[in-house]
Amino acid sequence: MGAAAQGSGDFWALLRRGGCVVLMRHALTEPGIGDPPGFRLDQCNTQRNLSEAGREQARRIGAAFTRESVPIDEVRSSAWCRCTETAELAFGRHTVWAPINSFFNDATGPAQTLEVLRAVRGLAAPKNLMLVTHQVNISALTGATLAMGEVFVTRPAAGDRLPVLARQVF
């Protein structure tokens, strides 16, 4: 299955120039919304996790970044297993970063969003930062929604949003 590009800019060209905050929603999961009652972050078997199709999707994403010779200087992930597994399968590395943890049923969303915006403000070319997180977080950062395994290319900007310059579905 190939990748389809959408957006106002050329996805790969923007990434090659650098200075991008790359927002990736975790790959495809088992059916459901949110996590089962009583889930625990330290026990993957209590969470909604990647499906086999999601694992393959994550590998495709990583292969595409390798094929296109796009440098990713740092990969940060939400602590949820579906995000850490996506990051590992796609990029072979990740650092858990609490500001991009899901706030699906939590009031911490505005504070987390502000923390991310502050942290990425100084990002400049040639560096690219990959954030593997959840739809709720990405929507708060950009004002846009995306599918599982979809990737947004953004750049730090003035204001309370990261503008989506390009997007890619894998």
UniProtKB/TrEMBL annotation:
SUPFAM superfamilies: Phosphoglycerate mutase-like. Gene3D superfamilies: Phosphoglycerate mutase-like. It comes from the Bacteria. SMART domains: PGAM. This is Histidine phosphatase family protein. It comes from Hydrogenophaga aromaticivorans.
